[in-house]
Amino acid sequence: MKIGYIHSIESLGTVDGPGIRTVVFMQGCDLRCRYCHNPDTWQRSCGTVYSAQELVDKIIKFKPYFIKNGGVTVSGGEPLLQAEFLYEFFELLKKQSIHTAIDTAGMLNDNIKKLLTLTDLVLLDIKHTDPIEHKKLTGADFEPTQRMHQYLVDNNIDFWIRQVIVPGINNTPSQIQALAKYCVNAQKYELIPYHTLGVKKWRELGLLYSLKDVAPPSKELMKELKKTLDNEVNKLKKTSR
Fold first, then answer.
1. Range of the structural domain that residue 112 is part of
2. Residue ranges in the chain modelled with pLDDT below 50
């Protein structure tokens, strides 16, 4: 029996997958995204310790709210760092006929492939499409995200693509056009405006927040970028027929 390190549990979530969901935030992340709003999830062996059954017992009371298309989303941090625990957790959720989703920046190994057999939806977060800029933004390579994306496509696993738009970093039309190829096979794709809600946590943890002078993108810019992305995705879909 594996144990899981859990940061927090949010009930009645509506943005991390379809329907009404319980979102389980896992501890541990190898990325150091400059805009991270949960830097307190970075360390792996912190938080509350649960067995898979204890975690199911904790959230099963929310099942009536899931109705037809809701369920449970695991987020973080990077939930795939605890893939073996999540496999046990998802096994129990599937016995309860509960929809399962993973919010991840993407990585791949045998344990993760096994976990994906019990996963109904992957929310794949693409931070930046340029490997050099991705490294600057997250401190990590882009290749694991690319590998997971290709695995999802090759194995017909449902996924959404999400990207946080940070002005001055990934809001150029060329970057959005490059993002489109990852969206072609996605069931849904979203551009999410950067926000500063996590700055307080950085200060409390004694961390230097390097984006303190960056303002959230305007609604007009977000609409413009979404239009660019829609147009490029449609072009790629037409050429692939």
1. 3-239
2. none
